[in-house]
Write a structure and sequence with these properties.
By secondary structure, the protein is an alpha+beta fold. It has a domain of about 230 residues: 3-Layer(bba) Sandwich (FAD/NAD(P)-binding domain), CATH 3.50.50.60. It contains 13 helices and 20 strands. An eight-stranded mixed sheet has the order 6-5-14-15-16-13-17-20. Strands 8-2-1-12-19-18 form a six-stranded mixed sheet, with helices on one face. A hairpin with a 7-residue loop joins strand 9 and strand 10. The structure holds 8-demethyl-8-dimethylamino-flavin-adenine-dinucleotide and P-hydroxybenzoic acid (PHB). The site of 8-demethyl-8-dimethylamino-flavin-adenine-dinucleotide (RFL) has 36 residues, from helix 1, strand 13 and helix 9.
Length: about 400
């Protein structure tokens, strides 16, 4: 087989890139290790920045998003049960985020794929990238038809944090920057109406809690938990009790309890691999960087990476120039690092750290109190939360 772009991974980065390339008339094939049900079934992101919403609209993939997505012009912070509102829209000249689950985004991307000519190979095992530093790269894998081979011009490594793409770059070239946090998030989904109209990020003495949602009838809640904790230790009643404690009495009165139908623990990590291009390979999304979910940035960074990569590839194929693809890594990393900074900072002011002494706790409380009283501080938070702009292509 032959194509122009081999895309490894059918997550948000891989599928958004595949749709963008299909629209621009650039041939691509997506190779995914799992099946559609697995990729679509993963409960992950919930908050889309405007640039991600605009991308889905540009791709004509937003009709359900525009009907069902919940537009949030504000968010809430809570300190030991006392809640204050941040009017993000007023602070950012009318910008907002949209609550629409990653599962729904994936469904829309997969449903539209066949009619748009987006080719996906499911259950591609043992994917190996070859010839990255030469002129004729290719990808090999195994599936039900046996050993397969795809020749291409470039490879887009969109295979997430544990994928093969980043690992195919020589260690002497790649630099890693990392922070591992001493806690995780325990998340549940329940078919109950959300406690608040907008999200609540709660800093409590006992640890962080987040009240989020998927729709007017489906709630998503998270609790900061220890990395050693097991799901069996968290029956629903314990979860609801702890959530209500951390959100405080005013919010607790509005929490509707019900059986959870999904429960999982995710560790928190900040990670960046540089550069995001090596020879014929480009990394995009979680393959190159991870943020703790506090800032709701992971899926949105996957979207901004592939917007930039797509622009570079279009320039290359339409005008033969390589400035866009040559500048891709630096351009993408400049936005990635700002999201890393924001996600780290937002995590640091909302979570309980094991080594935290009285002084650190007082500083955290002072910072939240400062944000509460200062429109200037709120503007910084709001500007980052709704999403920073994508820098223009290098001239
Ligand atoms: P993905 O989604 O991990 O997709 C990678 C795909 O590659 C496949 N793959 C391979 N395919 C072929 N060969 C191989 N060797 C392969 N290895 C892997 C995998 O099967 C998979 O299908 O990466 P991508 O596309 O870069 O997308 C990243 C996002 O999924 C991720 O950043 C977000 O989910 C992060 N995230 C959030 N992001 C937001 O923007 N807003 C949020 O509110 C938000 N909340 C979250 C989150 C992530 C969470 N968890 C569980 C980590 C909340 C949580 C709890
Ligand atoms: C979610 O709804 O899953 C969600 C919302 C906001 C975050 C992280 C996750 O910061």
């Amino acid at each position: 087989m032959k194509t122009q772009i081999a895309i490894v991974g059918a997550g948000p980065a891989g599928m958004l890139l595949a749709h963008l390339l299909a629209r621009s008339g650039i041939d691509a094939v997506v190779l995914e290790r799992r099946d559609r049900a697995y990729v679509e079934g993963r409960v992950r992101a919930g908050v889309l920045e405007q640039i991600t919403v605009d991308l889905l609209r540009r791709l004509d993939l937003a009709s359900r998003l525009d009907r069902e997505g919940l537009v949030h012009g504000g968010t809430n912070l809570a300190l030991d049960g006392e809640i204050f509102h941040i009017d993000m829209s007023a602070l950012t000249g009318g910008q907002a985020v949209t609550v629409y689950g990653q599962q729904e985004v994936m469904k829309d991307l997969f449903d539209a794929a066949p009619a748009r000519g987006v080719k996906i190979v499911w259950n591609a095992e043992d994917v190996v990238l070859h010839g990255l530093d030469g002129g004729t790269p290719c990808v090999t894998w195994k599936d039900q038809e046996g050993a397969r081979r795809l020749e291409c011009d470039f490879i887009a490594g969109c295979d997430g944090f544990h994928g093969v793409s980043r690992a195919s770059i020589p260690a002497s070239v790649l630099r890693h920057y990392e922070r591992i946090y001493p806690f995780g998030w325990l998340g549940i989904l329940a078919e109950v109406p959300p406690a608040a109209h907008e999200l609540v990020y709660a800093n409590h003495e006992r640890g962080f809690a987040l009240a989020s949602m998927r729709s007017a009838t489906r709630s998503r809640y998270y609790l900061q938990c220890g990395l050693e904790e097991k799901l069996e230790d968290w029956p629903d009643e314990r979860f609801w009790d702890e959530l209500c404690l951390r959100l405080g009495p005013a919010m607790a009165a509005k929490v509707a309890r019900g059986p959870s139908f999904e429960k999982s623990i995710a560790p928190l990590r900040s990670f960046v691999a540089e550069p995001m291009r090596w020879g014929r390979l480009f990394l995009a999304g979680d393959a190159a960087h991870i943020v703790p979910p506090t800032g709701a940035k992971g899926l949105n960074l996957a979207a901004s990476d592939v917007i930039m990569l797509h622009e570079g590839l279009v320039e290359f194929y339409k005008s033969g120039q390589s400035k866009g693809i040559d500048g891709y890594s630096a351009r993408a990393l400049s936005r990635v690092w700002k999201a890393e900074r924001f996600s780290w900072w937002f995590t640091s002011i909302t979570h309980r750290f094991p080594e935290m002494d009285g002084f650190s706790r007082k500083l955290q409380m002072a910072e939240l109190d400062y944000i509460k009283g200062s429109p200037t501080a709120q503007r910084g938070l709001a500007e980052n939360y709704v999403g920073l702009p994508v820098a223009p292509m290098p001239a």
